[in-house]
Amino acid sequence: MPEGAKQLVGRHKRLAFMDTAGTGASYTRMTGFTSLSEGKEATEYSRQYVDEATERTDVVGYATSIDYEFDRYTNDPVCEKLSTIADDELVGTDAQVDIVSVDIFTEDSQGRALARKRTYSVIPDTTGDGTDALIYSGSFSAASEITKGYCTTEDDWKTCTFTEGNIPEE
To answer: How far is CA 13 from the centre of its chain?
Structure first.
C-alpha cells in the first residue's frame, strides 16, 4: 500500500485496559467482551436568534457511558473485579474502575500508542443471560474527566502502562 494511503481501522485496534489492582501502575487488557460500545450522550444548548432563520446548537457537555457484555472466565482479573462489583452489589467508590482506551493503530516505532484514561462507575444490569456461558452486562458511566496520554507495553498488549501527556518527540 502506498505511504500515506488511508486504511480502514479495525475495531480490534482500539483496546481497553482496566486497573484491576487499583494502584495505577499497570492496566490489564479487557478480554472476553462481546460488546464494549461507547455512547457520548452529548448535552446540547440550542437557541434561535431573532435576526437569523436557522437555530444554532452547541455541545456544552457529555454524559459518556460504555455498554458492556462479557463472558465470565475464571482466573481473569478483569472478570473477577467486575463480577465482584455486580455479585456483591458494591456501591460508591467501591464500584468504580479506571479504564484506559488505547488506539494501537497509532503505535510508533518506540511502542507508544495514544490513550485516554478515565474513572468509570460500574452500573451492572444483568447476570446469567444465555445458556452457553455465564454472561454479565451493564454499563460504565463516566465518573471523571478524560486524562490524555499514551501507553506502552512489554508483553504484546496483554498489559500496559499509562503515562499522562504527549508522546515525547523522538
So the answer is: 13
**Alpha-carbon dihedral of residues 142, 146, 151, 153, nearest 10 degrees?**
-10
CB 72 within 8 A of CB 136: yes
The HSE-up count of residue 104 (CA atoms within 13 Å, CB side) is: 16
> In this structure, what C-alpha cell is assigned to residue 69?
457484555
Q: What is the pTM of this model?
A: 0.92
For 4, the grid coordinates are 500515506
Torsions phi, psi of 147, nearest 5? -110, 120
Q: How far apart are CA 57 and CA 51, in angstroms?
A: 16
Cα–Cα distances (Å) from 134 to 9, 62, 71, 109, 169, in that order, read 31, 32, 6, 40, 46
Taking only the tens place, the pLDDT of each residue in 24-52 is 999 999 999 999 999 999 999 999 999 99
- Separation CA 159–CA 161 (nearest Å): 7
DSSP H or E run through 86 = helix 77-87
pLDDT score of 77: 97
- Residue 70 in grid coordinates: 462479557
118 DSSP assignment: E
CA-CA distance, 36 to 16, in Å (whole number)? 9
